[in-house]
Amino acid sequence: MKLRPLATLAFATALLLAGNAFAQQSAADAARRYDPAFRTAEQKSKLQRFAYMDGTWRGPGTYVLPDGSRHDIIQTERIGPLLDGGIKLIEGRGYNPDGTTGFNAFAVLSWDVDAQAYGFRSHAMGFSGDMKFVPTDHGFVWEIPAGPGTVIRYTAVVKDGRWHEVGERIGPDGKAVRTFEMTLKRIGDSTWPATDAVPPR
């Protein structure tokens, strides 16, 4: 069907106006993405869903060693926000039966505004890396690369002051082998790490 000249002009004008509006909106969205106030507000909003993790936790845990033997520990976690709630810091300690520290790990949970994804950087036993982190209805799942086609997957369920987490080694065949389990109870609040800032004078 042929369009009449006036109809063609009206159609072209409508397309031009729509294109200009879209370009202006896209430019506004792009500018907003680089606005610190927008970015920090989005980060705080995304981290707020994990406020239930804040505080101190303690309970029994078990590692399954490569030879199949079990090593029992008392696991503790202390968790709190920093940067006005824009990131969350996590420190875990595993205590041996004699009270010595057998394991100590530190992680930062954040929100990447540009990638629109959670970031989880973990440090432990001389290693560090950015891990895949996915929230769930009652907790989260995070993974450590462990070789070709292999991951160590940790699945946590945190509900009603109880934190249950299991670690599984999943190979290329998809078979899961349990390597870790802990069941923690929330034992109190914590002002870590936001307190004791250095004053101006």
Automatic annotation (TrEMBL):
Signal sequence region: 1-23
Domain of life: Bacteria
UniProt keyword terms in alphabetical order: Signal
Protein name per the record: DUF1579 domain-containing protein
